[in-house]
Design a protein that fits this description.
The chain is of the alpha/beta class. The protein contains 11 helices and 8 strands.
Length: 279
Amino acid sequence: MPKIVFQTSIETTMKKTTAPDILRMKAEGKKIPVLTAYGFQIASLLDNAGIPLIIVGDSLGMVEAGYDTTLPVTMDEMIYHTRSVVRGAGTALVVADMPFGSYQASLDEARTNAVRLIKETGAGAVKLEGGIRSAETVKAIVNMDIPVMGHIGLTPQSVHAMGGYKVQGKEAWSRAALAQDALAIEKAGAFAMVLEGIPASLAKEITASVKIPTIGIGAGVHCDGQVLVVNDMLGIAMSGRAPKFVKRYADLNKVISSAVKEYIKEVEAGAFPSDDESY
């Protein structure tokens, strides 16, 4: 009987980054670059550039929808934007923010909404704010095998309780409380945590005290990774002074404004479309 040879075509694909991969990066001493994204195109650009982790932040309420705070963002809005980002992120781990009101009322509601974010978007993890007060919620979600990223320090969903967007951990009691928050989130099973708006010295202490990666934003250089809102770092932002921790790596405001003005000029002059742009 003749030997039958089956020919198969194997498509080489890059491995999808997972929560354990991010956890491993800290153990290996590798810094973790993180950016936010809110749609397919930007997510694709970030992924192709090599970003290992993308957060779909509820910051979309401010930078995409024009709200004054993140509080109005809904679950449906988070699901829509996260689904778009996941389609653009080939290898990066996508972490979806749980918006205000989606996890604070009860553990059952938190579980249900965490499942929705994962099931309906394809994200690899969820993120929620709060330290000790949110530890039980983190544990409940982790126990369903959904990876959770914590978020302590300046937590934007607590803007009213904090009296504005203010640096946290300046006083001795506040430093001690945040150190305990970090330990509580780690013990609850989070695979990483964001440290936002805290003194660099405190972020350094917390980073050394926990085995899970810390991702800083306005928390100094000693965190295991850094995150910025992509609109801020690309210079696609509303007018006004950026927070101190923002570094703008491009000024796309000027590029876009210049392109639009040139377009207006050519349309008004009848120069566009030319024969090259016509059928």
